[in-house]
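step: validate -> pass
step: tokenize input -> pass
step: predict -> running
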Amino acid sequence: MSVLRTSLMLVLALPLASCKSTATAGTGRTERERDSIIGQSKVPAAGAVQRALTVSDSAASRGARLDSAATQP
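step: predict -> pass
step: emit ->
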């Protein structure tokens, strides 16, 4: 029952968390830092958060490489 309650709370809290700005008011951490902490924790779906951060990093890196290749002769 406790796992179900925790999962339900997480599902209900996600829409509220997505409405915040990039810096969290209480902690001063950015969304990236907060997601990284969640990804390293033992909460359910933490692995998915970590994989999403990895994919985001890969895409940003690829974009940076393409941008730098376009500016070089």
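step: describe -> The chain is about 70% helix and 0% strand.
step: cleanup -> pass
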